[in-house]
Amino acid sequence: MSMTSKFMSRRAVLGGTLAAAALPLVAQGQDERGPADPEATGVRIRIGFNDLTLTATLADNPTARDLVSMLPLNLKIEDYGRNEKIVHLPRKLTEEGSGAFGNEQPGDLCYFKPWGNLALFYADYRWDGLIRLGRFDNGFAPLLVRGEYPVRIERI
Asked: Which PROSITE patterns does the entry link to (predicted)?
């Protein structure tokens, strides 16, 4: 093998190694609900109230799986504070594997650990006692309708 061939082979191996190392970094820059997110699943739920519907894609965590095991649910959704609606669940969900998360934003569906509620955010928030269950697929406009309503939550 000539010196030029050896140099080209080393360059190809080095280039391939660098490309493989950079791929996860590029993938992280994609939309958080996209296929690059290891936490996104194909599990979706529908939340219906006041003739309005939200859909959410759930994260792959024990708390989200526990919620799905309870569905369908017929409960009540109500305003809470200036940035969210809440749904009181019939029992607490598992908190196994929970931990801090970043990138909090409107459109998050979370579980509030201290009281066992679902928290549906339509404005900015920060709170350490939450587990992100997923994100709303097509916005969160129905959450802006003030009031208390019967709500149905089901898997789709």
From this structure: TAT
